[in-house]
Amino acid sequence: MKKSSSEKRRHVVAWVNKAEWDQVLDYLYSKDPALQRFALQRVSAWRGRYAHNTPVAVDCTADLVRCQVLDRSGQLNGDDLVLLYGAALVRFVNLITERRTGAWLPLQT
User: Fold this and answer.
1) Reported confidence tier of residue 108, pLDDT bands at 50, 70, 90
2) I want to staple 3 with a disulfide (CB 3.0 to 4.6 A). Which of 7, 19, 36, 57 is the partner?
3) CA distance 14 to 81
4) Which Gene Ontology BP terms does the record give (predicted)?
5) How far is CA 84 from CA 9, 38, 70, 74, 90, in A?
6) Which of 98, 97, 33, 90 is nearest to 65 (CA)?
C-alpha cells in the first residue's frame, strides 16, 4: 500500500503543536522569570516525552536560561554560578560535537 505524500512528511515531536513551540520560545526569551520558569517546565516535559531526541538548540537554550533564572534569583553565590554556567557551556559544546559527528567515539589509546 502506497503512503500519501502528507503521511511521508510527518515527524514525531515532543511539543503538542506549533502554538506550544512558539509560546515556549517566547517565554524562554522573556525578561519575566516566572514565564522563563514556565518555559523551562515545558522543556523538561518535552525531555521526558522525547528523551534524548530533543533538538540540541532546545536543550542548550534551556540550560542557559536555567542558569540565568538562578543567577537572577540571588540564591547562588559567585562560585556556584561560575560552575553552573561553565557546565551549561561545556554541555553545549559536547552536544554540538556529539550530534554533529553522529555518535560519540572513544579516544584511541
Assistant:
1) very low
2) 7
3) 30
4) maturation of 5.8S rRNA; maturation of LSU-rRNA
5) 39, 20, 9, 14, 10
6) 33
Whole-angstrom Cα distance, residue 89 to residue 15?
Answer: 25
Tell me the whole-structure pTM to 2 decimals. Answer: 0.72
What type of residue is 33?
Answer: P
Residues 6+ apart with CB under 8 A from 78: none
pLDDT in tens, 10-52: 776 768 688 888 999 999 999 999 999 999 999 998 888 877 7
- Extract the C-alpha cell encoding 102: 553522529
Tell me the CA end-to-end span of the chain in Å, nearest whole number: 51
Mean pLDDT of 68-83: 88
